[in-house]
């Protein structure tokens, strides 16, 4: 599979939904496969909260992309047929303009001064990317979780620029409980002594403890209760493989390990920005989903997973009902999914078949 | 209602389930109503994780007891008819021997050296209290959540000393997800810069930030998703009443407020001990619930609440099935409950009627 990673700079001013602006910005973009001569085979992947531009294959550090089970040669999203594009969202921490990057105005990292970004902003920058790549429209825009919100927003904001939208394990807005869980995660980051109100770069540190706790909580929400029970039950962790002597159970060890690993690579300001963007998104805003759905021209595929308690299937159904009310061509499928909310990341016979059929229909 | 609060000292050695021991210990005990001449009207209330001995009425600081909706004159647990006893569990932080109290051996607070306590230990100390009070048996032992686990353990450990057990919003053991959530809470406490590996008393501080985050997470698990949605939805917090400018939504403000308040009064070492006790409890241990249920002589009332996702009704059903397998006189009821896991704390017509009937049957 041909993987290409590049940084694309946009020197025009970007006015954000918040009213703030960026004088210029850059996106780190990864592409798979080849754009055909008629430029009709482009697919945009939108990443979830902690994802990035590296969606498939292995990168230079031998890291496998977040959607590698779905995206690749002969896979559900077939890179032999489609030109697949994925970019790190602005505000992220993987190479696109975000808190870690240098603010040209100050020659220092943006840090906590990076403006609040939103799902609407991300879709706007992705549209600018589409134009820059001279792609007339996306054959498909898709993603899971926060990525699914972007796919939905694409169908609303740029109805002429998207043929299909795949909205997986997502919702038209976050629930009260979603917001509450994100606030606990943010609180643990803010109260880390190394956070320095977001100015930790200047101190040469990172609020790793806070990030770790936040991610441990995240992992509980990504897995279902049943899956956790199956995988770990009440088994005790072997003495030799304990990450910490304070740990008793395997599940504690797993969360400790996963949290620690995440805290070494993710940026705390990005964590806060990204979760705030997720919390504040409301498809259709004051107009309401039903009203903006009128304008949607794309065909929608909405997939929920029974084991997902973060964005349970009922949240997908709300989108489907709004689509049906407005005669939008839309399908809504609920799959078992063995991985809770994370099910959207994993291949299964049914899931891949449904995606494939949808792309080719 | 006659409320009496006293501290009772036990000068005999207490050997704990862990193998560690306390040379002596004290319990802070609150009682309501009067013991009758035949001593047949005593009821023991077992508190949940963050509760204490103050179960009903108002104390000297005008604080209402945690089960005041259920316990009092003419209430479901009628203090005009019954002599109701509640004590703070050892390891707690409300006046019974725990990390905050002075270790007679060192003349300093036990702090992090307080031994790990368990549900079995609590029930053992409550049996010692029963003997000291010269009560021949409890007419009823009851509580919700971790309190329900103690009621269940009473029926197993001291079958001759208890006529009835009321086990509400509880389980025979914690689930993997329960353990995982508690571990996130503990992690946030341990990583607070003021925790000092549990030796914070010596530094004259308390790991309040960690406790706050832990409690914020706790509150999400005590409320149901639906309840949260009904109470807060996606409403924004008024500017004037924001506890912090970082807050956008009402639900964030609520959690911030509740977490902050809790962090001012609860002890971090107790938090860790109590949650570890909850995580490690398994009714019947290696023998299994079904095997130890054989010995139960008490009549059981098991109540679950549909809106409880922390200890959902199915967990109560497991106890009921083991009871039925062993011809134990047991009833299992699932109620709506408008308050998620916390539903056991709140009066409702049905709930109170069921408890009353059970006590008087």
TrEMBL record, chains A, B:
Alphabetized UniProt keyword annotations: Acyltransferase, Amino-acid biosynthesis, Cytoplasm, Methionine biosynthesis, Transferase
GO molecular function: homoserine O-acetyltransferase activity
Pfam families membership: Abhydrolase_1
Catalysed reactions, semicolon-separated: L-homoserine + acetyl-CoA = O-acetyl-L-homoserine + CoA
Involved pathway(s): Amino-acid biosynthesis; L-methionine biosynthesis via de novo pathway; O-acetyl-L-homoserine from L-homoserine: step 1/1
Gene: metXA
EC number: 2.3.1.31
SUPFAM superfamilies associated with the record: alpha/beta-Hydrolases
PANTHER family in UniProt: HOMOSERINE O-ACETYLTRANSFERASE
Name of the protein described by the UniProt record: Homoserine O-acetyltransferase
